[in-house]
């Protein structure tokens, strides 16, 4: 198997499982395991905290001692073993422990594959975008399959589809991969040490950019954890839930294919401002009009609330930071904006959801509105 195909299938297999775990797991815990929304939120929030620390600390530790292929293979195997522990009926404590361990291990697969992709791009000249698009396809297919399966059977199908998906991943990642990823490269200069962190936050504008990224990505906590449950509570058929959740992914894909063309010369602050306004409008509309039709319509705004915010951060570190600081910036972004902020906001969002489902989404404006204010207050002074 050539390197391009290996990378494409790697993204496809991981994001197929990610398309099951990310949008459906909270709903599965409440419907199949009988937990309340707030209790499931505690479990998922703790899992996301574990995920942020494992991405920030455990992943660099492992890749400093093992090859990317070894890390991907053994985290896949361990993830599958942990997943099987979900099958028996379990108490809250047992579910809490399994979820925290699973969340600490399973997400490591993604940065390992992404890092392997960077090596293949540099050394073997593979096309990243071509292979990464297979990940989006895998995520989309997972949403459709889960929607169909839950409509035909019940939500227990979510667990078994996840087991099948990870089983396929274990089979694929146990096969020989690209030779260049079998060795342990020298990554001594890419570790995030105290000196690197200090220098990064001393860079003009970075603390503000990081705060904006944390706020805007964290504002998706209710959507990621309760989007499926919200639509289920509105009595939407499981098959159509999969289609509705896919709308956001499709607009995200469409945005990224055109972003360089339309936004490469746009100010970073303008992009963050548009993302923050789009995010605010999205969550307010879901609150004001609690219908499946409105939820479906607001899915288009995912291109702004997530896509533009993500693109703005990537543009900032590419244009404003020296090469030596990019790895540290990416580490902070993955750990704190993409994981920890969502984890922390999952706890209050769960309690708000039990008061009123729409209130959990409105609560996310506690992040998006301050982001608007921060941009307006800092864009002239910091000139970003």
UniProtKB/TrEMBL annotation:
Membrane topology category: Multi-pass membrane protein
Matching entries from InterPro entries are given as: HcaT-like (IPR026032), MFS_assoc_dom (IPR024989), MFS_trans_sf (IPR036259)
The record's Pfam families line, in alphabetical order, gives: MFS_1_like
Which segments cross the bilayer? 7-25, 37-59, 71-87, 93-113, 134-153, 159-178, 199-219, 239-256, 268-289, 295-314, 326-353, 359-378
Q: Which SUPFAM superfamilies match?
A: MFS general substrate transporter
User: Does the keyword Transmembrane belong to this entry?
Assistant: yes
This protein's record includes keyword DNA damage: no
Q: Which domain of life is it from?
A: Bacteria
Which residue numbers delimit the Major facilitator superfamily associated domain?
6-361
What is the name of the protein in this document? MFS transporter
Record the organism.
Answer: Sporosarcina highlanderae
């Amino acid at each position: 198997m050539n390197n391009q195909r290996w990378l494409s299938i790697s993204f496809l297999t991981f994001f197929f499982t990610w398309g099951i775990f990310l949008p459906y797991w909270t709903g599965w815990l409440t419907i199949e395991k009988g937990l309340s929304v707030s209790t499931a939120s505690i479990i998922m929030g703790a899992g996301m905290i574990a995920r942020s620390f494992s991405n920030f600390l455990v992943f660099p530790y492992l890749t400093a001692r093992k090859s990317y292929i070894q890390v991907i293979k053994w985290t896949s195997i361990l993830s599958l073993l942990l997943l099987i522990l979900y099958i028996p009926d379990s108490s809250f404590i047992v579910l809490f422990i399994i979820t925290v361990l699973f969340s600490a291990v399973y997400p490591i697969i993604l940065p390992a594959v992404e890092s392997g992709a960077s090596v293949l791009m540099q050394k073997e000249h593979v096309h990243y975008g071509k292979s990464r698009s297979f990940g989006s396809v895998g995520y989309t297919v997972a949403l459709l399959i889960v929607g169909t399966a839950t409509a035909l059977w019940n939500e227990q199908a979510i667990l078994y589809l996840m087991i099948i998906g990870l089983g396929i991943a274990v089979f694929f990642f146990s096969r020989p991969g690209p030779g260049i990823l079998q060795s342990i490269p020298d990554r001594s200069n890419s570790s995030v040490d105290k000196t690197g962190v200090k220098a990064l936050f001393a860079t003009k504008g970075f603390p503000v950019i990081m705060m904006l990224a944390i706020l805007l990505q964290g504002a998706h906590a209710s959507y990621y954890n309760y989007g499926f449950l919200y639509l289920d509570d509105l009595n939407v058929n499981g098959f159509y839930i999969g289609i509705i959740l896919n709308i956001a992914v499709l607009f995200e894909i469409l945005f990224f294919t055109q972003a360089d063309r339309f936004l490469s010369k746009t100010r970073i602050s303008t992009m963050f401002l548009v993302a923050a306004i789009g995010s605010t409008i999205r969550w307010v509309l879901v609150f004001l009009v609690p219908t499946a039709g409105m939820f479906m319509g607001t899915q288009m705004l995912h291109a702004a609330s997530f896509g533009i915010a993500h693109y703005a951060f990537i543009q900032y570190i590419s244009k404003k930071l020296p090469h030596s600081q990019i790895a540290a910036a990416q580490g902070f972004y993955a750990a704190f904006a993409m994981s920890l902020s969502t984890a922390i906001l999952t706890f209050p969002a769960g309690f708000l959801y039990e008061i009123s489902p729409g209130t959990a989404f409105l609560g996310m404006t506690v992040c998006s509105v301050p982001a608007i204010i921060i941009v307006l207050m800092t864009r002239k002074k910091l000139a970003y």
